[in-house]
Structures are given as C-alpha cells and as structure tokens.
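Review this today:
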Amino acid sequence: MNRSNSYSNLFNFLKNDKDIINVRTFKKSLKNSGLLSDDPRLKHTFENLEEYGSELTLEEFNECVKDDGSLIEKFLQQDTVIPNFVEFSEDIKAIYDHCLPNESGKVADYIPGLAKVSPHKFGIAITTIDGQRYNIGDTNEDFCIQSCSKIINYCLALEKHGEKKVHEHVGREPSGSEFNALFLDKYKRPHNPCINAGAIMTVSLLYPDIEPANKFDSLIDTWTRLSGNIKKMGFNNGIYVSEKDSADRNWALAHFMKEHDAFPPNPNLTKILEFYFQCCSLETNANALSIVAATLANGGICPLTGELIFHPNTVRNCLSIMSFAGMYDYSGEFGFLIGLPAKSGVGGGIILVVPNVMGICIWSPRLDNYGNSARGIEFCLEFGKLFNFHSYDNLVNLTSGKKDPRINDQLEETVSTETLLHLVSKGEIRAVKRLVLGGSDLHVEDYDKRTALHLAASEGHLDLVQYLVKKKCDLKSIDRWGNTPEQDAEREGHQEVVDYFKSL
C-alpha cells in the first residue's frame, strides 16, 4: 500500500465538500470519540498539527497521523468499549447537572488543611479501558486523596510480598466497626487494608529496605505511571503537618498492633506513621485519578501507555477488598445498591471501578455522615440506576430499563457502506465475512462508484478478491473513472490478482 493512500478512507470520512479537512472539526471529532489532546498516544499527531494551518490536504493529513492513524481509525469507527461515546457523555453530563444542586454535607474540618477547600467544587472524570475520556466540572483542580491511597498501597504490598505474606499481617474481612476503631480480628490482625489500622499495617510492608526519601520517590513514580504520566502526583505539606498534629488515634492504633505483635519484626513506628501520613497527603486531580481507576478496571494495564503496572491477580484482590470495605461504614449499602468496587477519601474523592469497562473519579468536598462525598454518592446512585453495570445486572430480567453503553444499537441494526469498504481495503476478510453473515450487502458502491471488489483488487488482497468473486460481485463494474477491478489490480502492480482475474 502506498504511504500517500494509507489513511485515505479516514480522510474521506472527515473531509468537507472542498476535499480538505478542517483541523478544528478534526479535533472535535477526536474529542467526541474520547481522544483528548493530552493523550500520550496522540503526542505525534498533535505536534504535527501545530505545523499546519487550519486545513489539511490528504497528503498533509497522512503526514500528521502517520504514527497514530490506526488508533484514530479505531476510535472514529467506534470500535471501542463505549461505541457511542457522545451519547454516553451526554448521559454523564445529565447526572452531573442533577447532582450539582446537592449542597448537603460539610467539608472535613478535623484536619485544618482540608477545611480550607471550597465546598462548591465538583468534578467527574471518566476513562475507559480503551482510553476514552470525558471530564466535566472541576476535574483539573488538585485535591488530597487521603484514604484513596490505601488501595494502591495494598497493591504495592502484594506486588512486593505476595498475597500469603501480606495477609499474615492484615485480614480481608469487613471490620463491622468504624474505620479508626481500636480493634483487631481473632488472629490479632487489622481486619482489612481499608481501615486505618490495616492501612498502617500495609504501609509497614512497603519498601522496607529503602531510605525514606527514595521510598517516597518510588511511591510518587508508581502513582504517576498509574495515571498515564499525564500529571506527576503531588504532595501537600500543609496537610501532612496537619495529619501529624492530629494523629493521636493513629498512634494508638500503631502501639496497639505492636503490643499484639501484628507488625513484621522490629517495626519503627515513627517511620511507619510518617510514611502513612505522607501517603494520605498525596494530591492530584480527578482527571488523573480516573486513569488510575481505569488501570484497575483494565487488570493493571494503563490504558494510555499500555504499561503493565500491577499483576492482574493483584488487581483482582484489590477490587475484592474495595467491594466490601472501600466506602467506610456505607460499604455494605454501596455494594448492595451499586454493586461496583469503590474507594473514598475524606478529601472528597471517590474512585469507582467498572471492571473491564472504565474507571471514574468523582470529587466534591462536602462529606456525608459516613465520611463519603455527598455528591459523589448521589452520582454513583444515579449512575447505577441508569446503566446496567451492577455486578449482578447481567442476571435474567434484572437489566430492564437500564442502558448498556457497551452496545451500539445503531451499528447493530446496520453496518455502513464506509465500514464495510474500509474493512475490505484493509484486507480484513474475517471481519468482512462476519458483516456478510449479519446481512451486509457486498454489492454497494461508494461515492466514486467503487465497489468492494475494486478496493480488494487495488490493494492486492487476493484472498478477499477470490471470496468476493465467489459471492457473485460484478467483475465488470466500472468506477467513475471507467476502471474495472482487474484494471485497478494491474495499475497497482498486483500480478497475482491480475492472473486470477484472467483465469476466470
């Protein structure tokens, strides 16, 4: 295939009646499909676009997208986990608008640094496992992640020591008590990694042989990679100091666990607690945290970089813990009503994971009586009512009235001529056969009167040519330039195809 024609079908899909692409329209198409300008996968395309004006010819377009064209095609063809991303985004905006007037709850004030945050902030960020992204509201403002840090610390401990070792020191059961209760299970362990005692225990297992400064740098690096490197994880020193100054209960928990020999040998409580406070004082924005959530939804692989950060078994264990212990004393009710793993923090953030589909971060600082974001809980409830993502919504008759955004109803009814001809031009014979089984017409023409057989012949796809001939496609069909499929093959130098035509 000639490089100059490599993305001609994509160009034809996007071009206007002057046979050029408007750059603004192109960028809008990318955004509507879920591809944002800070996506590292599109770095070269956006850099190339800066070198051109407001319009692109075919040659300029091919040059711009030469490194990222396959990804762009995938998204614009709606070959993604959420095919109709525009409709899905509109549904999320409707839920956002519904929750916006909710002013119930109050900002956490027991930590002075948290009390300074504006109670009016509200943002929702979504990232799918394909890297489709939608943000609305205050999604680029940093906030303190607080207890959302606990789930990543648990993952890090599992990666370092393995499941058996970690759960010798921390349990995996609901505690039945408040998150900071001075209480251990029957094995003298904290009940799970999401309560304070369990989170302190988990931190004691992290980077045991690394100096404190290097330990913190390593933690920051992991969080940054989890968020696709779009933003380096930050640190709020004021909140760290506040945490240390109001840590009597956490110190009591640490000494209580030490008294019962719950820690690994020779624990240094000062260093353990200081690192725990540092973890709680990390800050980032909802945009980045949604990518972290999507990495968990994607089995530990970051959707924006393709990097495997956590082993799938680690993620499975983490999501299991989140399912029954991630939302403080509201965890049971949350699991019953919404049926998805989640983790909240008193900074107002909620990480919500739809396994194999997407990750969501909701941020609104006003907290309810359980310590969860009041607007965040309302969003999750409305989200659960609208979409059939509850863990058991797939059971018979439980999905009635709910949407499944993973299904493209429009494409189920009919496959466009452009889709069929695009697959033919790419030589995707299996996909073409599936479309035919679904009722697609192989005899359609594009705007230049070129048929599937024209495209298969001009691209040299002999197997597809043979298949189309067997399906009675017209060998003598003529495009608007007066060429037959055989003449196209001859012009492009595909001798095997030419010989096949002559043998008929």
About this structure: The radius of gyration is 27 Å. The longest strand covers residues 123-128.
